[in-house]
Amino acid sequence: AQSVTQLGSHVSVSEGALVLLRCNYSSSVPPYLFWYVQYPNQGLQLLLKYTSAATLVKGINGFEAEFKKSETSFHLTKPSAHMSDAAEYFCAVTPKAAGNKLTFGGGTRVLVKP
Amino acid sequence: GAGVSQSPRYKVAKRGQDVALRCDPISGHVSLFWYQQALGQGPEFLTYFQNEAQLDKSGLPSDRFFAERPEGSVSTLKIQRTQQEDSAVYLCASSRKLETVTMGEQFFGPGTRLTVL
Questions:
Q1: Residues A107, B44: C-beta atoms closer than 8 Å
Q2: Rounded to an integer, what distance in angstroms lies between the CA atom of residue A111 and that of residue A94?
Q3: Is the pLDDT of residue A29 over 90?
């Protein structure tokens, strides 16, 4: 069975500072990995995904994530936080097989201070 | 183009009532997923359809939960005899048919927030 652990349920950063959200997964083989963002009262929006191509993945809104197989990690970063980045972020995995469900982490809520 | 839509957006039910939650996926999307998101937690998988076929219902918490997609487009999640622990946001997602090389992205609707009193 797969699982996802997101360290820190809440993260507070200053505007302009680095955003770092941690995600570790447990899987017998490297899965597909995703980061989603959820704004209040909205559905989840895909930020980026890892599907066995480049280990450094660039996404929307200036976010990127690096897949590290040896550490079973897929941490999300953004060099400079913006007020609009305040939201909840979810890491998710799915096995490399057609039609499989996403397994999500517990989420990390980001607060951006002016 | 239109995204995934869900209705109603909010539903309040008395314990013991039956509820039906609707999902309209993106036109042409073959795969449809339902997830349950409890307050302060990540979404958890409930069930998956490919066209009208329900291929995975391993996440349904009890036999009070039932989902259908009779014509391979709109889907309904039905909860019978609702309990307080059913209170959550129910998310629907759709995706194109998966290709062999890349993973089909799941597009999520805004969810239905169910409150059982």
A1: no
A2: 28
A3: no
